[in-house]
Amino acid sequence: MYRYTDNFELLNKMSRLAREELRHFEQVIAIMKKRGIEYRHLTPSRYAGELHKHIRKQEPGRLVDTLIVSAIIEARSCERFYSLIPYLDEDLAKFYESLLKSEARHFEDYLRLLPLSIAENKRVRVSFFLKKDNNLVLSQDSELRFHSGTP
């Protein structure tokens, strides 16, 4: 957010999104505590790290790529939540359904924030990152993570 101080819409949307994500984190911590699950450190997922490696360093490409990668990660989260819901108890399934709805909204928000002036470049970059996403999802991962491997 500190990089794009001249884009009020972006600042406002990202601020609201950050608050919502922190609320989700608090809800997860409460669920874990209630269920007696220890919160422990996990190494970062290979999936997001590999996608982020391809984000351009110079503007406006950096903003475009960051928004596209963020949208793809949110969409992949939707897929994973949807795939898991049938296997969960009723309370956890309801929570995951609420997360699914939020992630879908975040996906749309990221795409709406893409500058209109880069329409052609956007298609090329979305295609580029979707290919990376597909390769990451279909490849083996050494550690189980939410976005890793086939569901």
Describe this structure in words.
By secondary structure, this protein is an all-alpha fold. The chain contains 5 helices and no strands. 67% of the residues lie in helices and 0% in strands. The model has no long low-confidence stretch (mean pLDDT 91).
Tally of helical segments: 5
Proportion of residues in β-strands: under 5%
Give the helix proportion (percent range): 55-70%
Globally, the shape reads globular
Low-confidence residue ranges:
none
What is the radius of gyration computed over CA atoms, rounded to a whole number of angstroms? 17 Å
Mean pLDDT: 91
Q: Which sequence of SSEs, written as H and E, runs from N to C?
A: HHHHH
Instruction: Supply the helix-strand structural class.
Output: mainly alpha
Counted beta strands: 0
- Summarize the main sheet: none
End-to-end Cα distance: 33 Å
Feature tags:
151 residues; mainly alpha
Secondary structure layout:
Elements: H1 8-34, H2 46-52, H3 61-84, H4 90-112, H5 119-138
Concise structural overview:
By secondary structure, the protein is an all-alpha fold. Helices cover 67% and strands 0% of the residues. The two termini are 33 Å apart.
